[in-house]
Design brief:
Length: 653
Amino acid sequence: MNASPTRPSLPPMTPLQRLGLDEWSPEASAELYGIREWGADYFDVTADGQVCVSVPFADRKVRVPLMDIVAGMKARGLEMPVVLRIENLLDHRISLLNDAFARAIDKAGYQNHYRGVFPIKVNQQFHVIDEIASFGARYNHGLEAGSKAELIIALSQLRDNDSLIICNGYKDAEFIELGLYAIQMGRRCFFVAETPAEVPIIIERSRALGIRPLIGVRMKLSAKVDGHWAADSGEQSIFGLTPAQLIEIIDLLKAADMLDCLQLLHVHLGSQIPNIRNIRLGVLEACRYYVNLVEEGAPMGFLDLGGGLGVDYDGTATNSTHSMNYKLDEYCIDIIETVAETLDPQEVAHPVLITESGRATVAYSSLLLFNILDVRSPETTSLPDQLPEDAPELTINLASVLEQVKPQNLQESLNDAIYYRDEVYELFRHGQLTLRERALADSYYRATLYRIARLLPEARRISPELEVLPELLCDTYYGNFSVFQSLPDIWAIDQLFPIMPIERLNEKPVRQAILADLTCDCDGKIDRFANPNGEMTTLPLHPLRDGEEYHLAVFLVGAYQETLGDLHNLFGDTNVVSVRVNEDGSFDFIKEFYGDCIADVLSYVEYHPQSMLERFRNSAEQAVRSGRISVAMRQQMMEAFSASLRGYTYFER
Ligand SMILES: *Cc1c(COP(=O)(O)O)cnc(C)c1O
């Protein structure tokens, strides 16, 4: 029973009671979904019940309903699902981070400056990196590369020589040559040694090319961190050097007369660090290494504290895995003060301070929008007004259990209902009940469970058996998306994201649901939902209306989700739209990217769409020859086949 902290959310809903509202309101929705807690002031609910993005400008905020943007997508033929990027939010995050460090530096009288670098792996998409490089230039915001491909991105995207390029990861001679050429061109490109084995290659290549490298060392810290990556932190970390390896590197560089190239210390405590105390301890330990490196005679000058700045996905502001117990300002001040306080007594000059915040920089600016295709409700739709004359005894018993459910006898009613249900199954197995009789008995059984679930809030004591009923009875809403493609961390590492409808928020969401994606894979579902009032196992949603679309959004998905995604069931990349909101409240579609078509995803798995068409043509032609179909029919089939190849991999209406 590891699910104990989660409480099923049942109707009637607690926020409604807490607010003392008789009528539902957009305010009640804001409270229910916790949008003001996890939304970081970027998202809110409008007075007419829609989710809006709230974009900060110098002296005011501009609100745009997401459904207005969706309407703009529809008009441009961009079908759901769509990843929506809001460029202003990305810019704002970069400013926020740089400004917060500038304030902390000012406050503490720190004698150097801050340089941010964005780790490309967190979102490699061209226009994300392009925006970070162009907007970030005003802060000399640089890039972190973990592979040759990422270094090539950094070299071609960064425009100014003052922005840093930090190269982590395993580096071969080719990687090192590329970096050395960058240095020769005036770039500040650091090779961070992850193992001693890289160092002789750096020495050899830089000698061969006659270019002095900029070298950093990545230390493994003993400080452990809380959160998802706890097991990988500290001594268990597979990354970073041990103290003995560090000494080996220092000696190698000394022998090669290159200790003057060692200028940077790198540490990375882990991602999504929920607890600020872990960060302080890690920084303290890093500073000790820094001081010792200076004492060993390395010039140093740069301290890179890696990533780890959290995102409050559930809005609880706690040290739980999906949250963080600190604010950005506190993070910056803690770091700056710890560094100054540790180095000052040793009279070591303050280094340029670097962090590699990925998640906290890009998470907010992307959201996944999708529509609901269908709802499956386990609830029986209709019970007859009267039992049929010839109803079997057991059905009559079940009907009377249903009739007698009240808050005082919930457990007893459940026991009885289950007893009679099992009897019904038994008779059916022995051929003593017909399909119709079994279906009717089933309906009474389910209706009883529903009535029990509905009365739970009025019960004095709720057994564990009763407590899980609402979850078992919830609806399944089928969403037009693939968890594997668009939200891989939900599947891979049990990540929680805030999810909510973006319309109809002036109506009370009376259904409780889990979400299923298009893959029909049992892992292709979402049944845990971030919420500041505690993680929820069902999501309150509105009933679908005939002929009307119903749109949901998954928020805070800008980090790690876009390229980790896979092609399970061959659902490909979604459409992507980049929007910029203007100060007058209008918005521009800056970029539109059409997602994969079916031919695209087929070619990823080595099919040749052209020869597939050819084969289909051959079968159709054969069918014409044998008189099974007409030529006109053949033509119609060929057109349908090739239109499908060109079509979106998701559900199209
Ligand atoms: C992944 C990674 C980061 C990014 O971490 P966030 O927690 O997303 O900020 C930074 N540096 C290194 C070395 C990484 O591997």
